[in-house]
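From the pipeline queue, job 12 of 40. The input is one protein chain; the requested action is below.

Action: predict structure.
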Amino acid sequence: MSAIDFEAYFNEKAEQQESLIPDPVFDELKVVNKHFKYPDGTLEMAPQEFIVLGSDRCNLLYPSVYSPGGEYTPPVCTAIGVAKSNDDLKPHESVKMPGAPDCKHCPFNQFGSIKLINPGATTQAKACKNNFRLVVVPAAQMDTPDPDIYVLMVNRQGEKNWAAYLNLLKSTLGSATPARAITKIDFSAMHAYPVAQFGFARKNDNLQGTYDAMQHCDLMLTAAPPTEPKDGFEIPPPLTDEEMEEARKAFFKGRRK
């Protein structure tokens, strides 16, 4: 009787199991003209009530500036993860053309870098879009057997409102755990573009349903928007710490003028 190659057997079984793992789900709840746009195209007016299951940060680099009504162009680089700052992220492993080994030193993630993709820009904005992501479930669906779960992008101004909301939850519920609350998400009337605002609607008492939905949360937060290299899109070399300091000084000097 020939000896069994246990190592090869286990490796084969592992490969078979990996082939059965589904691709990460990334159903994005988009915001269009301060309306929520669902994956099926349905538009819902804000405010809407959700249960927020989790959050992380996401940086997206598009090869050109957004043009309303224009053809969608996928990002060339994306970075996701749980971190204190978007600068602490690193490009996702699926990215073929990362701007730098980490976002902190990426030339596209510096203030004023918008000119790299739009030479005529007059602002000091970043070319890379720094976002905050929330995994949400429509509150009305929480009592259904299979509620829809979405990822909602929140910009930097909205992220500040989110931090203030967590402090409100801590004083209201005794805990800054958003899954324990029904959260009303609206958009600020003070801005022409959508800036998310968050309000406490009521306590979430469906703990079992929330627990079941949260089992999908981590999978969704590891899913990165698909990226695609763009022909002719040039990526400058990463900045050194010295170059970053000079750029920072130049940025603040320009703001004082």
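Job complete. Residues 24-256 form one domain.
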